[in-house]
Amino acid sequence: MLIPLASEEPVAEAPPLSGEFGGVRWLYAFSDEEALARWALARGEGDRMWNYRRVQGAWLLDVAVPLVRMPCGVALDAGREGGGMLFPPVRGIVPETVAADVPGTAEVTGDGGRAGAGGTGPERKDGRG
Which of 61, 68, 117, 119 has the fewest Cβ atoms surrounding its Cβ within 10 A? Predict the structure, then answer.
C-alpha cells in the first residue's frame, strides 16, 4: 500500500496524510501509484509531487492506526471510480485497544495501544490474516 505523506519532510519523519469525517480520523492509503494519482487529480493537486511511504496493510492497521491516538480508520483508494473501501476503527479490523466499539477504548492511552491485539496480525483467529 502507498501512504501519501502530509508534509515534504524526509519520508521517515513525515506523518501520513489523513482527513476527518464523522468524528473519525481516516488515513489515506492507495493500492498503487495510479490510484494515488487519480485521487490527487480529483483533489485538483495532480501537478504536485507527492511523497509517499510504501507499507503493508497489516502494519498500517496494527501499528499506524494506534499511533493516531483517536478513533482512526483507513480509507483505501479514496476517489476511485466505483468506490474505494473503508476500514473503520472497530474490533476485528484494528487492535481492540483502539477499537471504537470496545467500551473504554475510544480514547487511547499514552502507550498508543498494543500492536497486534485483535488486529490483522498473525494472532488473528478468524483466518483472514
Answer: 117
The residue ranges of DSSP E strands in 24-117, in sequence order, are 24-29, 52-54, 72-76, 85-87
**Helix ranges restricted to H, 48-113:** 57-59, 65-67
Amino acid symbol at 13:
E
How much is the pTM?
Answer: 0.75
pLDDT tens digits, residue range 82-103? 888 999 999 999 998 889 998 8
Lookup: cell for 119: 488486529
**Residues 70 and 99 sit within 8 Å (Cβ to Cβ):** no
**Strand pairing class (24-29; 18-21):** antiparallel
CA dist., res. 48 & res. 69, Å (int): 29
The structural domains of the chain, with segments of one domain joined by +, span 2-98
